[in-house]
Amino acid sequence: MRLATLADRAVLLTEDGAVDIAEASAGRFGPDPMDVLTEWSAFQAWAVSAELPAASPYRTADLDAPVPRPRQVFAVALNYRPHAAEAGYVPPEIPLLFTKFPSCIVGPDAQVELPEGNVDWELEMVAVIGAACHRVPASEGWEVVAGLTVGQDLSERVLQLTGKPPQFSLGKSYPGFGPTGPALVTLDEVPNRDDLAIECLLNGESVQAARTSDMIFSVPQLVEFISAVCPLHPGDLIFTGTPAGVGNRRVPQRFLGPDDVLVSRIDVLGEMRQTFR
């Protein structure tokens, strides 16, 4: 399944268009996407056997974030060895966690207002939690994941690196700094969930390219590490880290401007497009 949000309503995306979940289920699920996630197991069981009505056409530009109001948004620093190296660090021995505040989450085709400073790109695969859970072992980590989506951990580097310790979470949480989408893709649609090609393009130039198998800590390991401390809720997001190629580690440095177009794509999961003003 590909769960998305269209005009503030939960929809399933098919080859023919979008199907409104509340209408298709006669009000059993939705229309709020967060309610669908809260009843994720029951929704999956219904969707497998449901006879869906005809889909309606839609524009990708009209899609909102597939998880529009997550309770918690976790993010992982330095989870690709080449990125750790370009940042001047040795690979971490345990996951390095920070948060993006949920108010930064937007859809896959958002126009983002640039604050003062240096705004950088960070393409990431995002795991969406599908069950309330706590203290989940890595061996069961995938069982509590509803699906995967594409994300950008946009970062204003001046504020992010100000102070000791620095302001990681605040510098990454301006409005629009958490684009996600175009859809939540369930794991049965992903042939190899641990090895997906990931690429970020700036004005058509490839600036990041890697595979998620290059991550130091896998999704199940991250679920184990985070849930050992924090109870997780349906719809919580885990930004799993970015590969090498970010702007502040280039020589010369390169940051986003109002004429730039940022395209983020991950195999099977889809593609996002951001513009800036």
Automatic annotation (TrEMBL):
Residues 73-276 form the Fumarylacetoacetase-like C-terminal domain. It comes from the Bacteria. GO terms for biological process: small molecule metabolic process. Pfam families: FAA_hydrolase. One of its GO terms (molecular function) is catalytic activity. Belongs to the FAH family. This is 2-keto-4-pentenoate hydratase/2-oxohepta-3-ene-1,7-dioic acid hydratase in catechol pathway. It comes from Actinocorallia herbida.
